[in-house]
Design goal:
6 helices; mainly alpha; 206 residues; 64% helix
Length: 206
């Protein structure tokens, strides 16, 4: 209980700090763009995974306050002791990074998007590794694996759609990132099968 209170207070403090500074500053980081968007976007259809991504927040990776937000997120994650709860926090951070990356793609900021997508998959993989260490008898563990299993498909959907907008010379980068949700889907499906629980259908046909 004491740890949770400390976590909450610290998270509240850093959130308040971010909000306070944002009221006095609207500056953004400056990036040098070398990549140009591709001329033609694919019209291929993609599976629409029934998984809702959270609102990524007002402070996006191109904002000068982004590093403060990153520190806050890492602090909250490190102070979460219970492995299942930590896995849930990691998934939330992965989902928010994914949503931020999708916004950057729409803005044509492909370099920044590829980096945010990469961070997203690091959190997704970490969530999977944590939950794989949790006993099947832990309350809510199998239920969360189902959530993670479906989330990995949503991550793949967003990345598959995004890659069609990336410049040709940048696509190998996003292709590497795509391995993340594929592996998490496989690992989480294996965990569910071991626990005699059916994983989500894979609509990507592989």
């Amino acid at each position: 209980m004491k740890t949770k209170i400390i976590t909450f207070v610290l998270a509240l403090f850093f959130s308040g700090m971010v909000l306070l500074v944002s009221l006095f500053s609207s500056s953004s980081l400056n990036y040098k763009f070398d990549l140009q968007p591709g001329g033609n976007f694919s019209t291929a259809s993609f599976p629409d995974i029934n998984y809702h991504l959270p609102f990524p927040g007002r402070i996006q990776p191109i904002n000068v306050l982004w590093p403060i937000k990153v520190i806050r997120d890492k602090l909250v994650l490190s102070l979460t002791v219970d492995k299942l709860e930590k896995a849930k926090v990691a998934l939330l951070l992965a989902d928010k990074r994914l949503a931020s990356g999708a916004i950057l793609v729409e803005q044509g900021r492909y370099e920044e998007a590829s980096e945010v997508f990469r961070k997203s998959q690091i959190y997704l993989d970490y969530s999977c590794r944590l939950v794989s260490e949790v006993s099947a008898q832990t309350a809510g563990a199998t239920s969360f694996v189902h959530v993670l299993n479906l989330a990995s498909l949503k991550h793949r959907e967003v990345l598959e759609k995004s890659i069609t907008r990336f410049p040709e010379d940048a696509r190998p980068i996003i292709n590497e990132v795509l391995d993340g949700p594929k592996l998490v889907f496989e690992k989480s499906s294996q965990i569910l099968n071991e626990r005699e629980s059916k994983p989500s259908e894979n609509p990507f046909g592989d």
